[in-house]
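Input.
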Amino acid sequence: MMDEPFDDDSAGGAAGEVIRITLEDDTPARLDKALTLAVPEEAALSRSRLARLIEAGAVSRGGVVITDQKAKVTPGEIWEIRLGPAEPVETLAENIPLDVIYEDDDLIVINKPAGMVVHPAPGTPSGTLVNALLYHCGETLSGIGGERRPGIVHRIDKETSGLLVAAKSDRAHHGLAAQFEAHSVTRHYLAICHGVPEGSDPRLRGTRGVSFEAAGVIRVATNLARHRTDRQKQAVCWPPEGRHAVTRAHVVERFQGQAALIDCWLETGRTHQIRVHLAWAGHGLLGDPTYGGRRKLSEKLVGAGAQAAADFPRQALHAASLGFIHPVTGAQMEFESDLPEDMAALLAALRQGVSS
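Output.
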């Protein structure tokens, strides 16, 4: 999903930082697998980077450096990971077309297409939004180097479309980052989910973390953390684990109880937040291969909309509006983005099925 503030301590750890981990009862017996499961989400250490850290002598137990990835471990052991400098990735300017909604000397607002990664990583060094911004903005984009992208103050998932703001100057970067940190940026997403989340649903009312506010607004408040067995996923958890996350939503349009168009907005901005929260509530997004489940719509109830939903190739999620205070001028900035063609076509098929 979804977007979250760009935090220098959350993208691979700060140079010289030491991470201390106590292995839990259900830890795997092999060192690299145990650390992959146990490392804090905010450290954002991939399994491949952990392997390199082990081989480089950056991992120790009781003051003894261990360089064997297959070393045996046991629950209760305390391990230390000493982080070095972030690994540099050569980032090239690429002439990739951008849908620019707004631009001035300090910032740029982009309507990102589905399928575009926001910033480079070892697995995706090119074709990203940052590569495109380097070409479009040239030297005016605030200091981007290595794997650090200080111009990028929030993210949206690769397969999520919609609005994203990037800083072009240091002063804009600091000001935007502060607003995301304070959760004062307004972000609304349009999503198409399985079923219709209704306050009258006793199952939904009985779901932990779900509550209801005025005007039919559904509030989901949980903590989120990396999934214990699938490190590519996020999962609902409860304090003291994870990070606080709050999503609100209300139904915009219903499709015979089979699906709904919903407006979601964020109080926080955690990785995959909307996708995880809606799945937790029993209303995963159409097309979401990670959290959407295997539910199918009834052709009897929504006609061709059922097949359109089955064929939809990504999570049906679009960052439709974005609002913030301009960090230099102080002006209130508000932007909107229409649904992309694929989601508009999916809605048209669902509506046709309902009316036929």
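Residues 1-15, 143-150 have pLDDT under 50 and may be disordered.
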